[in-house]
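Write out this protein's structure.
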Amino acid sequence: MLRIILLILITFGFWSSPELRNYSAKGLRWTANWMETEDKSLRNSNQIRIRNPFYTKDSSD
């Protein structure tokens, strides 16, 4: 019971503080980038990557 109350208090603290939310978001993003696997399908010699000739990058990005 005490664990649940403590977890609720910590969650509320992170939710109410923008600075803590930013730190936790950055930490989660770093973890996701670190865990992200490399796309190995591009190394396979049986597959060819064809670029789209009609794609234009918007300047607003």
